[in-house]
Structures are given as structure tokens and as C-alpha cells.
Amino acid sequence: MPLDDPASHQKMRCVAGMRGSSEWYEHGRTQFVENPHWRQYLLVNEKGEIPLDKEQAVELSIRHSPEYRSALENLYLAAMAVSRERFRYDVQFYGGDSLLYTAQGRFRGTGANTMANDANLRAEKLLASGGEWIVELANSVTWTLNGQGNWNVDSSLLNITLVQPLLRGAGRKYVLESLTQTERNFLSEVRQMVLYQQGHYTRVVTGSGQQDGPSAGAARTSRANTPSFSGGFYKLLADQIQIQNQRQNIVGLKENLSRFEEMFEAGQIRDLYQVEQTRQSLLVAQSRLWEQVNAYEASVETYIRSLGLPPDLEVSISDPLLEQFQLVSPTLTILQEDVGELLTIVRKKDQPIPDHFREKIKDIVRRTQGEIAVLEQDLELLQKSVPKRLQGLKNLEAFLADRIEHGEQIDPVVYDTEIFEGRIAKLRTEDIPKNFIRLRAAFTLLDWFVNSEEQALRTAILARAIDPERTFDPSIEDALRSLSSTTGHSVLTRQQEPEESVATEEPSDPLRRERQRIIAELRQTDEYRDWIRRVLSAFQNELILLSLLQTRARLDAMTLIPVSVTADEAFQTASENRLDWMNRKSQLVDRWRRIDIAANELQGYLQLRLRGDTGRIDRQGVHFGADHSRLRVDMEWDSPLTRHSEMLNYRHRQIEYQAARRDYYTYVDSVQAELRNNVRNVLMRQIEFEISRNAVLVDTVRVDIMQLRMEQPPRGGGIDTNTSTQLIDALNGLTRSQNTFLDTWVAYQTQRMLLDLNMGTMKLDNRGLWIDPGAMGSAIAPTLAPAVLPSDRIETPRLNRRYVEEE
């Protein structure tokens, strides 16, 4: 017995002034409702967290979800109802014995004491026609205990009875009705369980697509509400990416705030308002980040509760599914933050530069080399995805052609393959090589700082003796070698200026010019710390541009699994495959069948009963034969004179059937509307995906332009007074468009999964996981074989199906 409420438990000890039973405790008591050791069976990582990916979430919900377990129990209850009905047609045995002793006084009746023994063994068999066989082996013996040993047998040994109704309740049609209905209900519950499993997977992953489970007509014990899968697993992954996007936004705002502060001190910005506006935007962005993190943690707790797990369980949400939407590598974001911290140290002129500063620089260079390798991998993935992208754009153009002809305005950049190919070519042959050259130039100066003593570097700065062609530290040499192998000879020559000098310059000339340009800018000051600050600022600027290039490469590499199903095709497929549609047809026929069953109750009652018994026991033994047998035949008739209640029930069943018909075609209409909306949403999301992709590209270019404007402000009068506003708007716009792009992809995947579910073609493997059908076109899925009707003639209503019934 589990732990009880003390006040309620007192009623078991004493109720209405009477002492309660102590037998309640014979099975023992426990302090636990759930198994106290269940956590030991969870797979955790070295941090004690449960690594939760999409498949693990589904499997945990199948094992722990209260709703899922209740659905299984209801299916079992439906199976028990079938077992109960089938048992009625099995041979059923009954047997028993009773012994009775009676003592009487001499003035009471006969005054003799008697002992009676009744023994019987019976077998019953219900027939499909409604008849019932009863075979009974029974005997009753009474002894008179008056000293003479008298005894007598009151009943025969073998009784055989056949009861057969002839009118009301006769015939297989009515006798087997209960079993037939139970079997049909069980088939419906099995289908409903399959549908529930499909909907359960969809709900765990996307937060949508909930389906009712088996009910079994059983009243369930009330329990606390289980949280819904709000947004599903996709939502948690999307929240992680959006938090990463916000952190990237904060990195950009921090760097630009530092630059505005420097420019204000240098007199390039005369208005302090731009500095404070950027600072305010940074504070708002940081506050927003804390809100997002807090909301994410609350969502995780709600989600794991919906899986049937306690909210204090430590989980680690991760899945490679949405890693492609990390448009900027998290390690690159951290690298930018670390460079910003070094810049903060340099800017504090009242504090000495720490001893580990040079080692930090070496580490940053080494990590930058890793980020360059990541971008190279991104370029390879982009190249592999180009054929799919081109095919997808052609399909989208074909779909939009009709709408464009009807006057809808859609920017060709959304679907034009030439624009796409030109954008990819520019990224590979111009933008990325330019960024790599500038990174190599920054590496040159970082190497000078890492391998020079402070005094020697001060002297070189004062003497204008920094050599751009010096030997590098090995770790920096590796980074430069990686850059050089990525850009290549042919790429470098594209950057040479002017064009007429291309034939005479060496491939390294663009790199030499870039180094000399940075050194020339550094010679504007003699301050040692200013020199370091300028180098790190230039380096951080290139890291920001590197992150933007990474965003563009990853953005254009993403593809969608195509869906080209029309609404009519989806509806036709659903009509042949949806399990709930099959159940609706079955339920409509059940309503129709009830009319016939109710009509049978209007008949009279006529029953034939045949009863025979044989065998007798006396002092000479057991006797069988005609002289010791008896046969009785009787007919029982009940005329249908009073059938008012039955008549009302018959009319009630007719009205129920007409209501069921209306419900059926209303359901069909709702399915059709749902599928049409589903197909529209899938197509709309494909268009929105391309639009939001281009929106991210536009915002990326805006940020790039603003970063270049910050790097090379106009000479003389300082930067424009609107620069801070434009820069903040560009950074925030990029974050918003990235989040919109991610949300659009999640919505598309959700709609694609719902379309598979709503068409009835969804398949799960033996672990309860979705078998992704891939591209969905006209040949959607094999349909189930139609039911074979006993007749080709099907009656249909003659008039309006909704308001006028057939004759």
C-alpha cells in the first residue's frame, strides 16, 4: 500500500465508531509511488546529463508518457471486451456440491434428522443461431437419520435442454451482433492506436498533429494534466540557434561600440549620441539574450515533463538536424569574443599588458586556422548542393509562372538560377579570396608582435622599420599556408589593380600591397598600445567579415526536400489510406446496423424449449432407458401488443443514422479542407524559404557594407551622424532575418510531416520513429485494396445530401 493521507487513513483505522480491519496491512506498505531506482536506468553522459536528440526524445516518451501508456491500456481493455464476447460461444462448464444437515425435535414435523447432498456438473454452449444447449449431470440424495437408514433420490442423473428463439433475437444476424460489434470496435481501436502513434511522433517532434488514442469506452481515473509538446523538439533546437544568433549580434554590437568610443576620442565622431545609442542597443540585446535563455530553460522543463519525466532531470538537447542553421560557427563567435576581450585589455592604458597576452595571440591565430578549414568544408558542401538548388529553383519558377502571369509581383532574385550562379561565383572567386588576403596581412603584423620584444617593437615603430616580408612563427605559417592553398594563384590574380599591370605582377603582389596598406595606417601613431590595438581591430574586423562569408556559404547550401503533391492527389490518397477515415466508414455502417437491431425488438417473442432427462438411482443401482426418462417440449409466445418503448428506440436509431450521415460527409469535407490548407502551406513555405534566404543575404551585405564604412570612414569631417543607427539596424535586421529563415524551415518540415500524416501514408519503424518518405510527388504511396462488396449495387441519395433525405 502506498503512502496515504493521514486524515483519510484514519477512516481505515476507525470508521463510524467501529474499529477497522488490520488486514489492510498484510501486503506491506511503501513510501514510494514510483520506482525509486528508475533513474539508474537512464543513459547519461560524463556530466550526468541525458543526451536528448530527436530519436531519444521519442523513445523516452513512448516509455514514460502517461498518455501513451493510457492509450496502450485502453487498447488492452478493448481486447478484453473481444475476449469476453468470444468466450460466450465457447463451451462453458459449471459444477458444485452442497451438503445440508437438518436436526428436528420430535414434536417438529417428522421429528427425524436428515442430511441432503446436491451435486451437479453442467456444460452450456451458445449457438450462432441463438439456440443454447445445456447438458447437466445432477443428483440430489436425502438421507433420513431415524435409525432405519432411509434415503431417496430427488432428481435424475442426466438433463439435456435445448432453447431456440424463433422470432425476436433469432438468427445469426442478431445473435452475433454483439460479437460482431465488439470485433469491429477492436479493429477500430487498433487503427486508432496506429494513428495515435503516428500523431504522437509528430507531436513530440513538431508539437502538432495530435491524434486521439483508443478509448475502449472505459472511464479513466482522473490525473493531473500533462503539459503539451509546445513547439516540439524542433522548437527547442530552433531556440538554441536563435540564442546563438543573438550572441553573434551582441559580439557585433560590442565591437562596434568599442570602435565608436575610439572614434569619439579621436574626433571622428563629434556626436556622443551615436556612442550612447550603440551602448543602449547593446544593453537591450544583452537583456533580450537573458530572456531567451530563461525562456529556453523553461521550455526544456515543460518539454521533458510532456515526455513523462520530472522537470529536475538534467538533459542536453542536441541533434545534427538543425546544425546547418548555425550560419556562424559557435567556435567562431567565441573566437570573436576572445579577440574583443584582448582589445579591452589593450584599451585600458592605465593597466599593463599581462604576460600571457602573446600566448593568447598565438592561440587565436591557431583557432583562426581552424575556422578557415571550416569555411573550406562549407564551400565543398555548397558545391555539392548546387545541382539540387538549381533544380529546386526551376521547380519554384515553374510553380510561380502562373501566378506571375496573373499579375502577382515576385522578385526574380527568389527563383532566378542565373542570379544564384552569379552569387556563388562571386563568393568563391572574389569575396572569400579578398577576406583571406586581408587575414594574411593581419597575420603578418600579429606575427611581428608575437616574436618581438616590446622595446624592439617600440623602436621599430618609431623608426618606421616594420618589414612586411619577414619570416613568420610556425603556427602562423601554417595558417598562412592554409589561406594560400584556399585562395590559390588564379584567385589572387583576380584582385590585382590596375588591370593593365596583371601580366607583370607576381601572384603575391595583392598580399604585399595589403600588408603595406595596414602598415602605412599604423605609422599614423607612435604609441605602442595604439599599434597593437589597431592590429587587433583590423584582425577582428576580418573575423566579422569571415563570419558573414560563412553565413553566405552555409545559407546557399541549404536545400528543401521537395513536395509537389496537388490537393486533389492528397485527398484521393487520404480517402484510400487514412485509418480514421476507415473508422468513420465503419462507424457509419454501425449506426445503420443498429436500425435493424432495433427493428427486431418490435417482433413478438416465440421460443421453443426441448428438455429431456434420463437416469435414476435406487437401491437396485443406476437405471437408464425409456422407463426412466422424460421428454418435454414447450413453446413460449409473447405477442407484440405493447412496443411503445421499442418503437421510440427504433425511431431514435433512425435519427441517429441520419445524424451520422451528416457527420460523415462533414468529416470528409473537413479532411478535404485540411489537406487543401496543408498543401497550400507546404507550397507557401517553399516560397517563403527562398524569400527569407534572400532576406538573410541582403542583411549580410548590409552588415558588410557598414563594417567597411566603419573601417574606412570619410576623411576630414568624420563619419555620418546616421552611421550608428544604420549599423544597429543592419545587425538587428540580420538577427531577425536569420531567425525568420530558421522558423520558415521548421514550419516547412512540420507541414511536410503533417501532410504525410493527414494523407494516411505515414510509416513508423519498430522503434516508433518516422520513416521519412523523401520527395513527395504524384506517385505518393500504394493504396490499400478496397473492400469487396457482396453486390455491385450501392444505394445513393436521390436528392440533396445535406438537407433532403432519400425516399
Any idea what the shape is? elongated
- Estimate what percentage of residues fall within beta strands: 5-15%
Radius of gyration: 43 Å
Q: What percent of residues adopt helix (DSSP H or I)?
A: 55-70%
Distance between the termini: 63 Å
The number of helical runs is: 18
Mean pLDDT level: 81
| Major sheet description | 7 strands, antiparallel
Kindly state the number of beta strands: 13
Q: Could you name the ranges where pLDDT drops below 50 across 5 or more consecutive residues?
A: 219-224, 468-507, 522-526, 781-807
Backbone structural class: alpha+beta
What can you see in these coordinates?
With 807 residues, this protein is an alpha+beta fold. Among the domains are: 90-127 and 131-168 and 609-638, no CATH class; 327-559, no CATH class; 560-604 and 641-705 and 722-807, Outer membrane efflux proteins (OEP), CATH 1.20.1600.10. It is 57% helix and 11% strand. The protein contains 18 helices and 13 strands. The protein has helices at residues 6-13, 54-64, 66-87, 172-175, 177-206, 232-266, 272-306, 330-347, 357-405, 417-450, 454-462, 474-493, 509-522, 528-557, 567-577, 579-600, 644-711, 723-758; strands at residues 14-15, 18-19, 50-52, 92-102, 113-126, 132-145, 150-153, 158-165, 315-317, 605-614, 616-618, 621-623, 629-638. The strands form 4 sheets. Strands 4, 5, 6, 7, 8, 10 and 13 form a 7-stranded antiparallel sheet that branches. It has a two-stranded antiparallel ribbon with strand order 1-2. β1 and β2 (18-19) form a beta hairpin. The chain starts with 5 loop residues before the first helix and ends in a 49-residue tail after the last helix. 28% of the residues are buried. The model is unreliable at 219-224, 468-507, 522-526 and 781-807 (pLDDT under 50).
